[in-house]
Amino acid sequence: MSYSATPSTLPKEYTVAIKGILSLFIVGTHLCATCAPGEASLWLQLCSALTPLALAFFFFFSGFGLMTQLRLQETCHGGDLTKYWSGWLKKRLWGLVKPFLFFFVLAHLLTIVAQGIDTFTWRALGERLLASWSGLRYGVIGPPYPAWFLGELFFLYIFFFLAFRWGVKRWIALLLLVGQTLALILFASRAEFGGYWLRYPLCFAVGVGFALWEQPIYGFVKRYLALSIPMLLLGMVSYILGIVTPGLQARFFVDTYQASLFLLPILLMTLAKALGLTNLFLAHQQGKMGRSLLLLGDISLEVYLLHMSFVELFHSPVLYIHSVWGYTLATYGATLLGAYLIARYLRPLVRG
């Protein structure tokens, strides 16, 4: 099956900018987790509330991006994807392992700094490395511990390859992807992995499905705005109820909260396109704000994998910042500067 080239509702520049914004929420939610009850600022509380949706978007964009690339390759090569698939899985998986290894080493080095270089012993380092290995039993990957996201993508890329490599009908391949993902969720549930292994992986398949039927979905949303906007509001209410319900995010079952994680990325992106917000950004992407968001998006992976080291460093025996705002600004500033410098000067060590 081939596809004609049609304008996407999610241009690459737009998704890159959104990823940059979402990465700020991830930083904020981990800062919020270190605050005493009632101490977190409104910004940190907002980040904590939006982080589940941000994670859903990251998985959604990953699935959408892979499927969009596959469709473009199919169009360019007339359906012959033998060359495209050659080495595809190895390249994708290495693109996950490589940044993890870099930030794994960096995280341990910064932990040594946070604990005090004068207190360093090889035995303590060995114990930390052993703890990192033991954490895999419960789906804990790291440090950096947000690397669980890379661990899930590792499996999802394999599932995507197995589902779409041999050219079966797209809807069958999507069902295969969903089936494999559900098996992963079942395993993670039985193994008592964290809730983040349960709630988000299927958002990847939603992104793949959206890429397959992007234009019909967009056409429906644009044509029936009177229905789409109330659906968006209903999804937002379901999401809010989900994040305020204790313990709900730590388990997986089909409920309105889970449905909101599936539907909100689709509705928000298609409505943004239908209402002209996407085109407005594209028209101003060369302005100061647009360039800043694109730069932030380009370093979003580095921000995601680096920030926890500074969250811990600035609340460590060596350097403890008591002011919430001082702590927040120091962490954001150090993370963004560090991420930029790594992306600028050490990119070959991080990116595939």
UniProtKB/TrEMBL annotation:
It is a multi-pass membrane protein. PANTHER family: O-ACETYLTRANSFERASE WECH. One of its GO terms (biological process) is enterobacterial common antigen biosynthetic process. The chain crosses the membrane at residues 16-36, 100-125, 145-164, 171-190, 196-213, 225-245, 257-281, 293-314, 320-343. It comes from Porphyromonas catoniae F0037. Pfam families: Acyl_transf_3. The lineage of its organism: Bacteria, Pseudomonadati, Bacteroidota, Bacteroidia, Bacteroidales. Residues 18-344 form the Acyltransferase domain. Belongs to the acyltransferase 3 family. Keywords: Cell membrane, Membrane, Transmembrane, Transmembrane helix. GO terms for cellular component: plasma membrane. This is Acyltransferase 3 domain-containing protein. It is found in: Cell membrane. Its main location: membrane. GO terms for molecular function: O-acetyltransferase activity. It comes from the Bacteria.
